[in-house]
Amino acid sequence: QQQVKQSPQSLIVQKGGIPIINCAYENTAFDYFPWYQQFPGKGPALLIAIRPDVSEKKEGRFTISFNKSAKQFSLHIMDSQPGDSATYFCAANLMGNTGKLIFGQGTTLQVKP
Amino acid sequence: NAGVMQNPRHLVRRRGQEARLRCSPMKGHSHVYWYRQLPEEGLKFMVYLQKENIIDESGMPKERFSAEFPKEGPSILRIQQVVRGDSAAYFCASSPPGLAGGLRDEQFFGPGTRLTVL
User: Fold this and answer.
1) CA of A96: which chain B residue's CA is closest?
2) Rounded alpha-carbon distances, angstroms, from residue B34 to A16, A20, A109
3) Among A26, A110, B38, B85, which has the minimal tally of Cβ within 10 Å of its Cβ?
């Protein structure tokens, strides 16, 4: 019940395309859903995050769509660039004082020039 | 404003030795978290600490692993008698003070320590 399932495992798009990465969860006690971007040999960098009281959040070219009833959320990258090629992780945090982030398995994105 | 700092960046140990990983949180941050990442896998939570307190260690192996965040100085993740299965990237994250449900939920990660056990 504390899992976050992420798909696809890998994704290849052309420059300018809109890759979409999906995550699903079971535990309705999750109340914070961040996305992280990780380049090889680096630490994860916080991209954007959403809470269950909104259905969409946009920051620059990155958009999170959130479907509370389906317990799913997704990341869309508009006008993708080769520099966006990285591994993307969704995560979820339980309501309350715990700081434990539960991560999805990751999606490796390649944006071809 | 410097980010989360971790050292060493790379650490090589032989089986049976001890590994000490250090983490300095971002300035003003009072919450520290440790995660482990195995090759081709996501990050797994290990422990959450505040100054001089372990808040949640539900992800820590029961033996050989310990963590501390003293009043002064960096947080330390200590692995005693390392085995080959401990080879992984260990990441530290920090978050600002405050209540859950606010900015305190935002965790910022360091560059990691890559531990190799020979």
Assistant:
1) B100
2) 36, 29, 26
3) B85
Phi first, then psi: give them for residue A82, nearest 5 degrees.
-55, -30
Judge: A100–B108 Cβ closer than 8 Å, yes or no.
no
Q: Which residues of A touch B108 (CB under 8 A)?
A: 46
- Has residue A12 got a pLDDT over 60? yes
Q: Determine the Cα angle at A111 with ends A109 and B4, to 5°.
A: 55
So what's the pLDDT on residue B105?
A: 77
Q: Which of A6, A46, A95 sits opposite B108 (nearest CB)?
A: A46
- Quote the CA–CA distance of A52 and A66 in Å, as a whole number: 7
- pLDDT-derived band at A28 (thresholds 50, 70, 90) equals confident
Q: Which of A49, A99, A103 sits opposite B55 (nearest CB)?
A: A99
Q: Tell me which residue in A89, A93, A100 faces B42 most closely, judged by beta carbons.
A: A89
pLDDT in tens, A35-66: 999 999 899 999 999 998 899 999 999 999 99
User: For residue A7, with 0-12 CB atoms within 10 Å meaning exposed, 13-18 middle and 19 or more buried, which class applies?
Assistant: middle
Pairwise CB contact (< 8 Å): B43 & A103: yes
